[in-house]
Design brief:
129 residues; 5-stranded parallel sheet; 50% helix; disordered C terminus
């Protein structure tokens, strides 16, 4: 079982992902606001954080920068997944510079998207190789 945080302001996507991950016996916290997500991350240690790029109160990249300031860059790598309907070379480049996966919305294949999310952070042995 993994601990997930989903940060998404489109309620249909948020609730759908929450329901599907819980159905697979994962623990899931959700929020529609980036600044609320930052406070949740301060209090909890998530295995995977799925974050929309364009939130109403901030951006996914701003959330990442704030989290780096108190958890460090290593916490971000292989843990954050950015979701966006606006994939560009610039977005991909920036996400990969943080060590983040990028998922395109709407999902072409929901099962593949869920598998990427369930993969979450690599275990310590994989990180050392």
């Amino acid at each position: 079982m993994k601990d997930f945080l989903i940060i998404e302001d489109e309620l249909l996507i948020l609730r759908s992902l929450e329901r599907l991950l819980k159905k697979s016996n994962h623990s899931v916290d959700t929020t529609t606001k980036g600044f609320e997500a930052i406070n949740l991350i301060k209090k909890n240690d998530y295995d995977c954080i799925v974050c929309d790029l364009m939130l109403k109160d901030t951006t996914g990249f701003d959330v990442i920068e704030d989290v780096i300031s108190f958890k460090g860059r290593n916490y971000i790598q292989n843990r954050f997944i950015i979701m966006t309907a606006y994939i560009s070379e610039k977005v991909l480049e920036k996400a990969h510079s943080y060590g983040c996966e990028v998922l395109s919305k709407p999902f072409k294949d929901l099962n593949s998207a869920l598998e990427i999310m369930k993969k979450g952070i690599k275990n310590e042995k994989e990180l050392q190789e």
